[in-house]
Write a structure and sequence with these properties.
- The chain is mostly beta strands.
- The protein is 5% helix and 60% strand.
- It is built from six helices and 35 strands.
- Strand 16 and strand 17 form a beta hairpin.
- It comes from Aquirufa ecclesiirivi.
- This is TonB-dependent receptor.
- Pfam families: Plug (PF07715), TonB_dep_Rec_b-barrel (PF00593).
């Protein structure tokens, strides 16, 4: 099979989802709102970045502060209130910021082969931060082969106006009992061109490089292990709206770097209580270096935050009876944080060392015990689970002294689905979620986005309670999924504006004071017109209300969706797509004070994209015409506008 082999749009009609219950089951069985995108769907989208890849997944909205960022809104929440997983390993760390951030963009979409989302659940399955759901990304794996198999793949991407110039190479070698995959990419992104002939958004371009290595070994019939390494480095990533709106000459991520190495082992036993045991040991490192300098000021601020995460997880899959199985285990994560700041006078070259954004040498320790039970009774599938979680944060603040913050949480998930015939099901679920305050909540001091923050060591966990009702249907021609939900949020950490101003920025204090709720629904569907064409689409809506402040919740996305028509003719596969968002005029006081937003609201928009791919046995060429109407638009809450009319190309070769 080719490294870049494509599948038809109908191949995803029968999908298996793993993330919803930590065990493989069909989407019809799962009593949660789930979505699965396989490698063919990922390649079909030809996304420039991982955030842009996921922007049309039901229940998800994308905010882009800058071209080098991109934060997912999962049913109205984003930043450290949503959980990202990568190959079964927690991607969130203890410095993930409240509100939009750029971390997802440090995962190269070239390496992904599968994405799963679980809406309204995930805290029992994966822990803290899953207030409204989990997005789980899976990177490519080397494949075993009965005969020695060598595959080499190359791809190049480019765009008009020099907006992209990217290369990637892959080598995979497989035998019966072991396989190896090595890949690397180099990318240069130019300044984004706005629609309506309004020109380049300067500065917004940057460069990045990534690499990945994986080795799998089937040691015995009952034991398999793999080791993997991944790295992404991005240099000189401008924060566009800071330069345009806040009088900065320089405001950039001088370096963003994500790195991880892991070992994963899977053992099959003859014992019912431990039919399958999976263990993962991982080390992750996240480095963020920032530079900022105001116009006409000699002072250059240089900041650096590095988080080193060590983790261990064990998952035991048991089969107690014919109809009752479970997944139980433990997870432990330990973050060590190094944070520094220096103000450099460019005239005198005097360096003034200062406290970093977080207390230097802070530690953040998480440990959990969980159990998930899967019960199948005739046409019913029942999911029940509990997780107990505890956190200890140690903050050796040079100004406020040593502070130790500890908290714990107990959360549950419960869902039931009933098959109706063989093609449809209805489900009802209730799940609680939580988010322990992290180091960004507890210890941040300084300028963050448009505000100045102070430490708050008294904070307690945030909680969510989700109720959801849904219907699923799929057969050889038609698939759809529809859900309605209500999520109650309590003990929310909010930034309260004070009357104090520091360095021209209003000072905010963090408190557990707010109660809010989210309500809405999602629909997604695909209709296979015939063997060569299909229609697919999705629509998502969420309403958020802050009960404490009696105002809308912050950054709530508007009604949004997309519709695609796909057709295959000979060697050509084409797609025309309409992506749209309605206006959003329900703004909180915080929205109105955010300089990325129009205080009157965000205008609605719609863009049309066209893509066609010509495929041969060992190569294929794709061309995308984006934003055919040259619409000038901005996604709600973003700090940069979307791309205007442009041409994007991709050439793949494999042998």
């Amino acid at each position: 099979m080719s490294l870049f082999a494509q599948k038809t749009a109908s191949d995803t009609l029968q999908n298996i989802v793993v993330s919803a219950s930590r065990k493989a089951q069909t989407m019809l069985q799962s009593p949660y709102s789930t979505q699965v995108w396989t490698d063919s769907s990922i390649r079909q989208k030809s996304a420039r970045t991982s955030p842009e890849l996921l922007m049309n997944m039901p229940g998800i909205f994308l905010q882009k502060t800058n071209q080098g960022g991109g934060s997912l809104f999962v049913r109205g929440l984003t930043g450290n209130q949503t959980l990202l997983m990568l190959d079964g390993i927690r991607f969130n760390n203890s410095t993930f910021r409240y509100g939009p951030n750029q971390y997802l963009n440090t995962i190269d979409p070239f390496i992904l082969e599968r994405v799963e989302s679980v809406m309204g659940s995930g805290a029992v399955q994966y822990g803290s931060d899953a207030l409204t759901g989990v997005v789980h990304l899976y990177s490519q794996k080397p494949q075993f082969s009965t005969k020695p198999l060598l595959q080499v793949g190359l791809q190049k991407r480019w765009a008009s106006s020099d907006m992209e110039n990217s290369y990637q190479g892959k080598i995979m070698y497989g035998q019966k009992n072991w396989s190896l995959l090595v890949s690397g990419s180099s990318k240069k992104f130019g300044d984004l061109i706005r629609g309506n002939q309004l020109g380049a958004q300067i500065p917004s371009g940057y460069q990045e490089g990534s690499s990945m290595f994986k080795f799998r070994h089937q040691a015995t019939k009952s034991f398999e292990w793999e080791i993997g390494y991944q790295q992404m480095v991005q240099n000189n990533v401008p924060v566009y709206h800071k330069i345009v709106l806040e009088n900065f000459a320089i405001n950039e991520m001088e370096k963003q770097k994500y790195e991880r190495v892991y070992w994963k082992g899977t053992a099959i036993t003859k014992h019912a209580w431990a039919q399958k045991i999976t263990g993962i040991v991982a080390y992750q490192s996240s480095l963020e270096k920032r530079r900022a300098q105001k116009n006409a000021s000699p002072m250059l601020r240089v900041e650096s935050d590095q988080v080193d995460t060590r983790s261990l997880s064990i998952d035991v899959e048991s089969q107690w009876t014919k109809h009752w199985s479970s997944n139980s285990g433990i997870e432990m994560y330990h973050d060590g944080v190094g944070s520094s700041r220096s103000d450099i006078n460019q005239s005198s070259q005097k360096i003034i060392p200062m406290r970093g954004l977080y207390p230097d040498q802070s530690k953040y320790e998480q440990s959990s015990v969980f159990t998930l039970h899967h019960i199948r009774l005739n046409q019913f599938q029942v999911e029940l689970g509990l997780r107990w979680h505890q956190v200890k944060a140690t903050l050796p603040d040079t100004t406020l002294g040593l502070s130790i913050v500890q908290n714990q949480a107990l959360v549950y998930t419960a869902g039931i689905s009933r098959l109706i015939g063989t093609n449809s099901s209805v489900y009802l679920s209730s799940s609680s979620g939580f988010r322990s305050p992290n180091l960004d909540d507890l210890g941040s001091l300084g300028i963050v986005d448009f505000r100045y923050e102070k430490p708050a060591y008294q904070l307690k966990p945030e909680y969510s309670l989700n109720l959801e009702l849904g219907y699923k249907f799929e057969n050889y021609r038609f698939r759809q999924q529809v859900s309605v939900f209500r999520t109650s949020l309590s003990n929310l950490i909010t930034r309260v504006k004070t009357t104090t101003v520091i360095q021209g920025y209003p000072v905010y204090e963090k408190r557990n004071v707010e109660e809010s709720y989210l309500a809405g629904g999602e629909w997604s569907g695909m209709y296979k017109i015939n063997t060569r064409s299909a229609l697919q689409g999705q629509l998502s809506y969420v309403f958020g209300q802050n009960l404490t402040q009696n105002e809308p919740m912050r950054r709530i996305p508007p009604l949004h969706g997309s519709i695609q028509y796909l057709i295959q003719t000979g060697r050509f596969t084409s797609q025309i797509e309409h992506v749209f968002a309605f206006s959003q005029e329900r703004l909180s006081a915080g929205d109105k004070s955010d300089n990325r937003m129009n205080p009157l609201g965000t205008a609605g928009w719609g863009v049309v994209n066209l893509q066609t791919t010509y495929a041969r046995k060992h190569w294929q060429l794709s061309l995308q015409l984006q934003n055919l109407g040259d619409v000038d638009y901005r996604m709600h809450g973003s700090g940069i506008n979307g791309v205007g009319r442009s041409i994007w190309g991709q050439f793949l070769i494999s042998m």
